[in-house]
Every structure is written in structure tokens, then in C-alpha cells.
Amino acid sequence: MKITKINYFFIILFLISGCSSVPKNTSDGCSIFNERYLWYKHIKKSEKKWGTPIYLQLAIIKMESDFDWLAKPPRQKLFKVIPYKRPSSSFGYSQAVKGTWKQYKEETGNKFATRTRFKDSVDFIGWYTNKTEKILKVSKKDAFKQYIAYHEGWGNFKNYKSNKKVINLANKVQKQSNTYKKQLQNCKNTLSTSRYIVF
Questions:
Q1: Residues of the chain with pLDDT > 90: what percent?
Q2: Quick one: CA torsion of 180, 185, 189, 191, rounded to 10 degrees?
Q3: Domains of the chain
Q4: Do 193 and 39 meet the contact criterion of CB atoms below 8 Å apart?
Q5: Distance (Å, whole) CA 127 – CA 121
Q6: pLDDT tens digit sequence for 105-164
Q7: 121: Cβ contacts below 8 Å, ≥ 6 apart
Q8: How far apart are CA 71 and CA 68, in angstroms?
Q9: Please, what is the average pLDDT of the chain?
Q10: How far is residue 192 CA from its own chain's centroid?
């Protein structure tokens, strides 16, 4: 059977879609890594490099994209009906905007990083939360304030107390972070065991 270029395209697209599909249970850290063990290797490397706990990295991704690699903010609507532009350039697992992603790539030298790759996304979150600690003196274990800085930006962080919406979001991230932390305690030994990864 002769395989055409079009067939190759659909085969590659199928493989990419399968590898990048959303985990079945994004509220359970152990379930996520049992399904995506390579993700655990990437996020563990980010934790070691930047000092940002795995559970916080997961909680940020859960809030930002719910682990959808192609996530984008919904389009605004004109007259509540006509689709208009998106409110920001946020994209991918981390929902990083273009400007901040560019800064990340320049500062880390990771010039081929892409927002749709989990490995790069968790490295970005580690880099960002590390800078938050340096700039704002916010501990990388403080999920509440770290998320506010992530959502609002370093420059707008000081104004968060008057923003009920972001406070509610940060409370959810803190709660989810605590949940992931407890869950991962139950499977850390299993996850630390080396596995063969078959592609």
C-alpha cells in the first residue's frame, strides 16, 4: 500500500493529538502522572531547576488551561453576538502571553520553546515563579500570592486586594495546590520509580 504525503500528515496529526490530549482526571495529580509519566519527568526537572513545587505548577496549569495544550481565552463579542478579538495573547498549557514568553526565551536561552509543549510550559512556570520570589519576595510555596502575581503580572501585584475576581481565582489555586500536594504524597514512591517510556 502506497502512503501519500496526505496520509503522512494525518498519521502525524493523529500521533500529536493522542500525545497532547487532556488527561482524564485533571483534578488528581497521581492520575495525571500515571497517564502522562513523561510529564512527571519534565515537571520534576523544573522543580529541581527553579525550586517551584510540583503541586503549585500543576495548580497553575489547572486554573489557566485545565491541561489543554491549545487553550486560548474566549473571543469577546460585539453586541453580545458577533465574535470579536480575544482579550489577550494567552495560549497553551501555561496561558503565557507573547511578550512574557519572549522574555522567558531570551532570559533562559530556550529559543525553540513553544507554549504547546508541556516541558517548556512547566519550565516557564518555574522561571516565572522564581522571578516573582526575587521581585516581590513571595515564597514559591505561597500558592495564593504566587498565582496573583502570575495572573496580574509583577507590576500590578500590589493592587490585588481590591480585585475580588483575582482573589477568588487565587483561593481556588491555593485549594487545588493543597489537594495536589496531599495526592502526590500518596504516589511519590511509585512516581520516583524509573519506568521505560514506549513511544
A1: 73
A2: 0
A3: 24-192 (1.10.530)
A4: no
A5: 10
A6: 999 999 999 999 999 999 999 999 999 999 999 999 999 999 999 999 999 999 999 999
A7: 61, 92, 93, 94, 96, 115
A8: 5
A9: 87
A10: 21
How far is residue 60 from each of residues 54, 113, 116, measured CA to CA in Å? 10, 19, 15
pLDDT of residue 6: 52
57 closest CA partner among 110, 127, 137, 115: 127
Q: Are 125 and 60 in contact (CB under 8 A)?
A: yes
pLDDT of residue 149: 98
pLDDT (0 to 100) of residue 80: 56
Block residue for cell numbers 536561552? 109
Residue 3 has pLDDT above 60, yes or no: no
How many other CB atoms are there within 10 angstroms of residue 182's CB atom? Answer: 10
* Dihedral sign for Cα atoms in the order 155, 159, 165, 168: positive
Q: Are 184 and 59 in contact (CB under 8 A)?
A: no
Let me know: does 80 contact 74? Beta carbons within 8 Å.
no
The model's pTM: 0.85
Exposure of 135 in the CB half-sphere (CA atoms within 13 A):
16
